[in-house]
Every structure is written in C-alpha cells, then in structure tokens.
Amino acid sequence: MQRPVGVTVITIFFLVAAVYFWIAGAAILIAPTTTPPMTGLMLRRALKLTGPYPVIVVGGGYALIGWGLFRLHNWARA
Fold first, then answer.
1. Cβ distance 69 to 77 under 8 Å?
2. Residue 65, CA distances (Å) to 17, 51, 54, 61 in order
3. Domain map (residue ranges) of the chain
4. pTM surpassing 0.90?
C-alpha cells in the first residue's frame, strides 16, 4: 500500500517536533543554568518547572508516533 502524501507530511511534522524536544532537553542537561534560545516561552517555562527528562520523554513519544505513521501502523492513528 502506498503512503498518502498527507500522512507523510504529518509524519515529518512529528519527527521534527521530536528532534526539537530532544535538542531542548539535551541543552538543559548540558547547561542547566541556561535555557536554550530556540525554545518558545511556554516550553521554556515548562522546562524550568519540570526539568529536561519529561521533555525528552515527550520527544520520544512524538518520534514513536512519527515512526508508526511512517510504517502505516493502526495504533499510530489515534
């Protein structure tokens, strides 16, 4: 079965968001006193409140959903 173009676009968005979360979480792990300049105001506030680990886990969830969509698994279409 050929993958629809819309699913491919959504998959790319999920994977880009996962990389964004991983970079933001890793930047906080490397330099805990600074916040990465690329993070938005809401993500910056969430990073200060929760720390980098939940952000990295959320990025993993986004990557998992992106991979599932790319492989056309039914569980990824929630």
1. yes
2. 11, 23, 17, 6
3. 15-76
4. no
What are the structure tokens assigned to 52, written together? 């980098």
Instruction: For helices 41-50 and 5-30, give the axis angle rounded to 10 degrees.
Output: 50
Q: 14 to each of 17, 50, 57, 62, 76, how far by Cα in Å?
A: 5, 22, 14, 6, 11
Residue 28 tokens read as: 């906080």
Q: What is the pLDDT of residues 29-55, one digit of tens each?
A: 888 776 666 666 676 677 677 878 888
Angle between helix axes 52-70 and 41-50 (nearest 10 degrees) is 120
Tokens of 39: 């993070």
